Amino acid sequence: MILFYIVATIAALVYVFYLPEKIFLGPEKTRASFLRERKDAVYENLRDLNFEYKAGKVPDADYYSLKSSLQDEAATLLAEIARLESKTASPRRTKG
Question: CA-to-CA distance for 81 and 92, rounded, in angstroms?
Fold first, then answer.
């Protein structure tokens, strides 16, 4: 009877902790794709902020502060995206 419990315990542990050799984790994210996702989130936040401000839910001081902060972040993201894209788009010259 004890042998049954030992085998059952080992089987349960193997079932719970066994990892197959190939685990699909999805496509690998690049820095550029992360920055584009972040840019989309910042733009969405700006749209939401404008909507809330026009609805009268956000005071003027808070609106201008948040808007400035989001615009600064968007500008930083766009600059880094442009830098990464220009780096990958520039052809490499070889001596021949």
Answer: 20
Domain spans of the chain, in order of start: 28-87
Give the CA angle between residues 50, 55, 57 to the nearest 5°.
90
- Secondary structure percentages of the chain, helix, strand, coil, to 5: 75, 0, 25
Cα→Cα distances 72→3, 11, 44, Å: 66, 55, 14
The overall pTM is greater than 0.70: no
Q: What is the pLDDT of residues 34-89, one digit of tens each?
A: 999 999 999 999 999 999 999 999 999 999 999 999 999 999 999 999 999 998 87
d(C-alpha 80, C-alpha 91), whole Å: 19
